[in-house]
TrEMBL record:
This is BURP domain-containing protein 5-like. SMART domains: BURP. PANTHER family: BURP DOMAIN PROTEIN USPL1-LIKE (PTHR31236), BURP DOMAIN-CONTAINING PROTEIN (PTHR31236:SF45). It holds the Pfam family BURP. Residues 12-226 form the BURP domain.
Amino acid sequence: MENAKGGLFTVDELHNNFHAGKMLPIFFPNKDPATSPFLPKKVADSIPFSSSKLAEILQLFSIPPGSSVAKSMEDTIKKCEYAPGKGETKTCATSLESMVDFVSGAFKVGPQDTRFITTTHPTMSTASLQNYRVLEAPKEIKSFRKVACHPMPYPYAVFFCHYDEDSSETRVFKVSMVGENTKDKVDAAAVCHMDSTSAALLNLTDKHGKSPMCHFFSAGDLIWVQ
């Protein structure tokens, strides 16, 4: 389970090794999902969000050009401008309303008929690599489509959201664990990329380059399901 230290594991390992009582070495980053606040949609839509307007954006937020923050913002905008992959639909939601609208459109239902899965660790105070004891067998979250939304580095909340047209390419599980040293309780969201090509592009294959890998989502990363 060397891969588990980096939060990586195969689907077979998920089924065979993640049983109640099993101890696994895992690193969970202690990431605060509330660092960047959401702006109202009307305000967010009025702010430029493109590489061509980067200088104007930096001036608006009083960010020094060439600083690490400016570089992170530039990287975020560029990723948002990348063309989607084959069979992928994507957007960068600059407001909560925009994210909900994208998710509702993906499922073709109202917001009240969707929910999100994420990793929660309400008692975790510091990030550390330690052994975690699995409390119960992983539970698969069934949904005809899964929409992943990842928080991006920016002065206000920006989520990179995407989904694949072929829902069979992604499987989602919830795993409950407790830290051996800190006794931190973690309810982790695990995502398995079943398509070998997509997994290879994400560098999520095993050492033989064949078996698609699974990984844990950090707190703040969302998986929307129906």
